[in-house]
Design brief:
The structure holds 2 protein chains of 2 kinds. Chain A is mainly alpha-helical. Chain A contains 12 helices and 5 strands. In chain B, about 70% of the residues lie in helices and about 5% in strands. Classes of the chains: A mainly alpha, B mainly alpha.
């Protein structure tokens, strides 16, 4: 196993894809830091805030890009085992299929951890040295970092599973399709979960917005040449409102699948019933299920 | 040529990638139907016809990726040498590829349209009002969209035949996405108005029918947006660049696809070329791409 890992790592350091994805991660990190500076300037000048916690909300923001990076790196790096035929060499010298699979999984896991380390190091050092207004909350930051770990385990496991079981050189396309699906599904599900139980019928009324003396926008309605209020409009049950059984399913998927977890870890959506420990448990469960299924299937696979 | 096409089709139906591409087209079509259904639920004006001509946009990514995966097999498995050894000319191979990829594009388009019109009309509907596309608009736009699909097929074959490396599907994906984003970006630039209204504050005026409308107040006088004094917009792009960007938007298949799909939702596009002009650009692009591809492919060292 040690030899397999050593061979994988020496190939990883020389792999252009590893460095390209790392560069992408660095680029995203620098963009995140520039957004932080803009936010800090706005908070200090417009909201007149003296100190605030800038670090905690941003610590989990690498989750989305990590999903994308793994979707690109795993197939490009691991598929060459099939393409170059090196998998046969590994099996001929006496390594078991389980060892080959696990070595590949651990290599991809290491790459994901390195990318996360890059993001967190640059972000936290930038805040530490250049944002003196930051109010550090070490406990919250640590909890967020720990919460990222099961997510990283599950993402690496899922993409390793895909790439190890699909020999075709087009697996990169499949991997990217899976990543797009994992990122698209949570937004659809979250939008449906946010649908109200009742909807307002305009009934011919038009909606306008006016700004009062304090600069606050207000919505008002106009029907048949008369101004009316929102209470005058009729409400009916919303057909797109999700009934409880479906709500539970959507909430489960949002917490279980890596896409929904990525959005929650980066504070993009707030799911009712979603919590850090629950997502961590699901992340560990998914990584064990994916690795177990992958090991089983890989052992039976015809490697030609 | 007939043997080449017959061999392609025999491989096509058994290729998983073909079915994956079709599923992607069906998925995009479903997104449009669901979005229309959602808007109609809230009483917003919407129609599935808004998305009918939109099929060219996912096609501009799905078809190059499929062509890259499918045609690259010739290089990967060495079957191209068999085709040449049995006496087929490189021109015949290239043109057979173009016919195949265009036909796959048509099948993908039909998959999209079957969901959009078949399912969409029953689940959502196609109300006919002033701001929504009419059936006439769709009938006029369909032949143009077929010309654009041919241009996309030509680009796909050009890329797939000239790049032999096994990562060409990824290149095709990035190129498709890059050109689609470029089309959106160029459209935004072309949308920048040449003049901006000069005013002290924006106000709400009441027009002749008693409806509130947006107006501008300058020096105590209220103006409508049309009457308000204007000044040149410093952010507007200068003339040589503006003409270049307009040409690029009309010549690129992704730019054509963007204009076609935007046209169907009203005048959101900055430079909607008339349908005949757009079709001519699409056919022109096909000729240039195919001509270039043939020239390079005939001289290429196929090892």
């Amino acid at each position: 196993m040690r030899n397999l890992l050593s061979a994988n790592f020496s190939r990883l350091w020389r792999s252009a894809w590893f460095w390209l994805c790392g560069l992408g991660m660095l680029g995203y990190t620098l963009w995140e830091v520039s957004q932080l500076y803009a936010f800090r300037a706005h908070a200090l000048t417009v909201w007149e805030v003296e100190r605030a916690d800038f670090a905690t909300p941003r610590v989990g923001d690498c989750s989305l890009l990590l999903l994308i990076a793994m979707a690109v790196l795993c197939p490009l790096f691991l598929n060459s085992d099939f393409h170059d035929g090196t998998i046969r060499n590994k099996l001929v010298v006496g390594r078991t299929r389980a060892q080959v699979y696990l070595a590949n999984y651990l290599t991809m896991l290491a790459a994901a951890l390195l990318y996360t380390l890059l993001y967190e190091a640059v972000l936290l050092l930038a805040i530490g040295f250049t944002v003196p207004e930051n109010l550090w909350n070490a406990q919250a930051v640590t909890i967020k970092l720990v919460g990222l770990m099961p997510f990283i385990l599950s993402v690496a496991a899922l993409f390793t599973l895909l790439v190890q079981l699909v020999r075709s050189r087009g697996v990169t396309v499949l991997s990217i399709l899976l990543m797009v699906l994992l990122l698209w599904l949570p937004r659809q599900q979250f939008d449906r979960l946010c649908e109200p139980e009742e909807k307002t019928l305009l009934g011919g009324a038009e909606v306008f917005v006016e700004v009062d003396e304090t600069g606050e926008p207000h919505q008002f309605y106009w029907r048949d040449g008369q101004r009316i209020s929102e209470e005058d409009l009729e409400t009916v049950p919303n057909p797109r409102y999700l009934a409880p059984p479906q709500r539970r399913l959507y909430t489960f998927l949002l917490n279980f699948l890596p896409g929904g977890q990525a959005f929650q870890l980066s504070d993009s959506i707030d799911v009712e019933g979603g919590s850090g420990p629950l997502m961590a448990a699901y992340g560990l469960l998914l990584s064990m299920l994916a690795t177990g299924a992958g090991l089983l299937a890989f052992r039976r696979m015809d490697l030609k | 040529m007939r043997n080449l096409l017959s061999a392609h089709f025999a491989r096509l139906w058994r290729s998983g990638w073909f079915w994956v591409g079709a599923l992607v087209m069906i998925w995009f079509s479903w997104i449009g139907v669901d979005s229309t259904r959602n808007m109609l639920n809230y009483g917003e004006p919407a129609s599935v016809l808004d998305f009918t001509l939109f099929y060219v946009q996912p096609l501009s990514i799905a078809l190059p990726v499929f062509a890259a995966v499918f045609l690259n097999g010739d290089y990967y498995y060495g079957t191209i040498r068999n085709k040449l050894a049995t006496g087929r000319s490189r021109t015949a191979i290239y043109l057979a590829d173009l016919v195949l990829i265009f036909l796959v594009g048509l099948i993908y388009s039909l998959a999209f349209l079957s969901i959009n019109l078949g399912l969409g009309l029953s689940l959502a509907g196609a109300p006919q009002t002033d701001f929504l596309p009419s059936w006439n608009d769709i009938l006029q736009g369909l032949p143009v969209s077929l010309a654009v699909a041919l241009g996309i097929a030509a680009l796909s074959v050009l890329l797939a035949r000239l790049v032999t490396h096994r990562t060409v599907p990824l290149t095709a994906l990035f190129l498709g996405m890059l050109l689609t984003f470029a089309a959106q970006w160029i459209d935004q630039i072309l949308l920048i108005p040449t003049e901006l209204p000069v005013y002290d504050e924006a106000i709400l005026m009441v027009d002749d029918s008693g409806e509130p409308v947006k107006g501008y107040r300058k020096d105590g006088v209220d103006y409508t947006p049309e009457d308000c004094p204007k000044e040149p917009n410093p952010n507007c792009v200068g003339e040589p660049i503006h003409a270049l960007l307009t040409f690029a938007q009309n010549f690129s298949p992704m730019g054509q696809a963007y204009q076609l799909s935007r046209n169907s939702v009203g005048t959101l596009s900055a430079s909607p070329a008339p349908p005949g002009v757009l079709a001519a650009f699409a056919l022109g692009f096909t000729a240039v791409a195919t001509g270039t591809g043939l020239l390079v492919f005939r001289r290429k060292d196929l090892k």
